[in-house]
Predict the 3D structure of the following.
Amino acid sequence: MDIYIDTANLDEIKRAASLGVLDGVTTNPSLVAKEGVDFRTRLEEICQVVEGPVSAEVVAIEHDAMIAEAEPLIQIAPNIVIKLPCIEEGLRACKTLSDRDVKVNMTLCFQPLQALLAAKAGAFLISPFVGRIDDVGGDGMEVVQQIRQIYDNYSYTTKILTASIRHPQHMVQAAMMGSDVATAPLKVIQQMMKHPLTDVGLKRFLDDWEKAKTLLVKEPAMA
Ligand code: G3P
């Protein structure tokens, strides 16, 4: 499963990239607004750090305006992926851009039929927002499962990008269900490498090693 980081914070992206397991980046208007930086400049900076897909979202909600907004973004770097919302105009814009071989990430997906249409329109990525579905009492991961089944039934090549991830269990479930990609905040990516027994076990090894060293100093081996 590919792992993307879901942030527009450059330090977090560099930190995740330094782990050697980062495959891409997703941004959205809320994440960019939080940084208080120029959108284009930040995307240029991100693309210098990460070679994999970098999602850049348009804020227009009408086909022609979406395409016009996408044009300068596409020029930033070859790894830019245009992020469009799962609405009718977004679907039409997805088809227009995909027909031009521009990669599209269809975002704000909350049910499997949106994913089916996105695949038919040639989307490169579909982003089910699992955390937000959970937030309103639904089962976000069930939607991922449904999309996986539909895509497998018809051999659609659109990649499932599990998004709105809140905790490591979402990552476990995404990987077990065959989500192609999961995008998560830095905190969750770091949590993936953590287990309390690893910390306890490591401390015990290091303590034992210290004791062994003391014994070796006190009782040097006979020549
Ligand atoms: O990038 C979109 C998505 O991951 C948003 O997550 O936490 O705002 O629901 P969240």
